Predict the 3D structure of the following.
Amino acid sequence: MLIVEMAVTALVLTGLISTQELVSFPTQDGGVVYAYVYGQGARGVVLAHGGRFTKESWSTQAQALADAGFRAVAIDFRGRGQSRGGPDATGDEGVEFDVLAAVHYLQQSGAQSVSVVGASFGGWAAALAAVQAPGTIDRLVLLASSPIDEPEQMLGRKLFITSREDFSGNGVLRLPAIRDQYNRAPEPKRLVVLDGSAHAQYLFQTDQSERLWREILGFLSEP
């Protein structure tokens, strides 16, 4: 766990800073995804933001991953930042292709394993990607993910994380739906319920932030 503790310390103390690189890569439906790349190494991590965020929202967490020896790719989803979907895509249709494009970029640039950390909307897109391309994603972190229809088809290791009192905009507690997704997903899997009511990436702004990152980094660092 030493590597996890060092990375959390770097996160809290804003330690060493590595260079972020702006890259772009195509999606299978003819779109283009723009992303920031942090760090080096054979272990890749795709960071998929929530609906109200962009790739810049992951800068502190991406740096912590880079300090821990990962290569992190924080993407903009289509319709956010410079990214765009294919010519026939409408709205959020095809967001799973954005995630898969980032996974393939990491694989083609030397990553031996690729995990995805998806928050809320980004978790939904990451889960769709896992179902669309079984076995492509090695580990999946779903941070208060929006529910999908077929969690039974999500292969690989899975970490579900949410806060206990997280309510949706229409006043519905998210935990029961997330627990249902967890129960239906195949092993190996783990569910972590944190204190408080913060939703997805907003948890990084609370007193649960350090535990949240210990859980995520510990999961990504397991042999």
Observations:
- The CA atoms of residues 4 and 217 lie 6 Å apart.
